[in-house]
Amino acid sequence: MTVALLTLSVIAVAGCASQALPERAAGMRIDASSVQSPAVTRRSAYEYHVLAGEMAIQRGNRTLAASEYVAALDYSRDPALAKRATRIALFAGDPALAYRAAGSWAASEPDSLDAQRTAARLALSNGDEKGLKVYAQSTVAAAASPDIGYRLLADVLSGESANSDLAVRTASHMAQRDSDSAPAQYALGVVALRYNRNDVAEQAAARAVALDPQWNDAVLLRAGVWIRNGESAKAQALVDDLPGNDATRAQYHMTLARLLIEADQDEAALDEFQHAIDLQPQNADARYGLAILSLSVGDLDRAETAFNALYDDNERADDAAYYLGTIHEQREEYGPAQHWYQRVENGSHAFESQVRGARMIYMQDDLAGARQRLSELRGVYPELADQLYAAEGQLLYEANEPQAALELYNQGLAELPDNAELLYGRSMAYERLDRIRAAEADLQTLLANEPDDARALNALGYLLTNHSRDFDQALAYIEQALESEPDNPAILDSLGWVHYRLGHLRKARRYLEHAYRVFPDGEVAAHLGEVLWKQGERDAARQVWQDALADDPDHAVLRATIKRLDK
C-alpha cells in the first residue's frame, strides 16, 4: 500500500482513533506493539502511527511526525512509507531517526540509487562505519555504471567535514576492494583532496592514471593534486598536453581554472580562463568565468570589457547588466550604474537590481525620485514589500530624515504587523529621534517573537549601553547575540563598547581590536580610539582615528569622538 492510498484509508478511522487514544493529543508516546487489545493488529498499528504522524505534520510538530512515521516502519516494508519517513525526519533535523528510516528504505528498494545514496550519506553523518561500507557498495552497484557510481559516492563522502577520517577510510576501502578500477581510485583521490589528504590523493590519482592513461578526468585530478602541492606550472603543463579538439581542450582549461580558484591562485586561474577563450572564443562559460574572477580580484577594467561583450552577444545578459551596474557603482558613477541596473529584467538579480537602481537615484541627490521608484516597486513586488519599505527607510535614515523614516515604518507595519524587518528599522528611527523607550519596545517585540534573533539582541544591548546605566543587562544581551554569531564584527564592537562602559579596558580593547581588523568601520575606530585614549596611548588612538577618517572623512560618530576627546 502506498502512503497516498494509506492516507485516504486512515482518514476514515480518524474519529475513532482520536477517541480511543486521547493521550496522543497531548503528544504522549505510545508503543502500539505493547497495546494488549486483540483488536490492535500490525495493520491497525501501522495505520495508527501514520495517522498520528499526519496529524503532527498538520500541527507543525515535525519531531513528533518523524517519530510516528519511523514507528510505522516497524509494521510495514512499504518503500514509499520509508522514503517519506526519511524525508520527514531530515526535515525535523533528526539525523539518527532519518538514518533508521533510510535503512528501511534502502533494504526495501535495493536497486534504488536514491535510497542507497541517502542511506550512505546518513551513515556518514551518524558515524556508522560498518553501515557506510555496506551503503557505499550498494550505491556503486545501483548506479548505471561504475564511473557514475563512484562519482556519486565521492560526492556523498565529500559532504561531512566532521567525519572526514571516516570518509577517507571508506573511500580507501572501496579503492582496495576494486583495486583494478580506475573510477574507484579516482573517487578516493577526489575525497582525499576534499579533506586535504594530499599524499593519499596523489597516490590515488597516479593509480587511476596508470589504470586508464586515456581517462582525462584522472589526469585533471592529478593536476589538482599538484596545484594543492604548490606545483601549478607542472599542472598547467600536464593539461596543455591533453589531447582533443579545441572545444574539449577549452573545457580542460576551465576545469584547471576552477582548481586554481579553490587553491586561491586567482591570477593563474585568469590565465586558464583566457586559454579556454583563445581555444573557443564563443565559450560563454569561460567568458563569464573570466569576467566574474576579474571583478573578484578588483580588475574592474578587464571585468567591464568582458561583461560588455557578454551583454552585446546576449550571453547571460541579465547577469552581465547587473555586474556592470556594480562596477559603475564601485567607481561612484551612479548614473551609468542606474542605467545598467534598470536593464536587468529577469534572473536571480532582477529584484536586487531594481532596488539598487532606486538607490542610485538617491546617490544622485534625488531622494524624492528614489522614494517614488521604491513605492512603484512595491506594486510590482507586493510579496517583497517589507524589503522595499526597509530599503526606503534606510535611505531616509542616511539622509538624516528620522521622522519621515518613522512615518514610513508605521505605514509598513500597518500593512505588515509585527514584521521583523520593519520593527527593527523603526527601532533605529526611534533611537535617532531620542525616543529610547519606544526603540526598546520594538526590539523587545522582536525578541518576544524570535528570542534568538542575534541582530535584535545586539541592537538592544547596544541601545542600553548608549542610553542607560544598565550595562550588565546590555552585556547579557550582547553575549547572547555573540553565541549565535561569534565572528560578527558588529557584535564584537558592541561587546567591546559595553566592556568599556563597565570599566573593563583590557577586555574592551581586545574585542574592539578584533572587530576593527575584520571591519575597519568609522564607528568601530571611534570606540577603539577612545579605549586607547583612556589607556593613555594617545598617539595610537590618533593614528586609528586618522586612518578611519581617510576612508570616511564625514563619519559623524568618529568626528564627534575626536572633537570630544582630542581638544
From TrEMBL:
Q: Which InterPro entries match?
A: TPR-like_helical_dom_sf, TPR_rpt
Q: Does the keyword Transmembrane apply?
A: no
- Residues in TPR repeats: 250-283, 386-419, 522-555
Note one Pfam family from the annotation.
Answer: TPR_16
Judging by the UniProt lineage, the source's domain of life is: Bacteria
The stretch of residues making up the signal peptide is 1-19
Question: Which UniProt key words apply to this protein?
Answer: Signal, TPR repeat
State the protein's name. Answer: Tetratricopeptide repeat protein
Q: Which organism is it from?
A: Salinisphaera aquimarina
Q: What is the lineage of its organism?
A: Bacteria, Pseudomonadati, Pseudomonadota, Gammaproteobacteria, Salinisphaerales
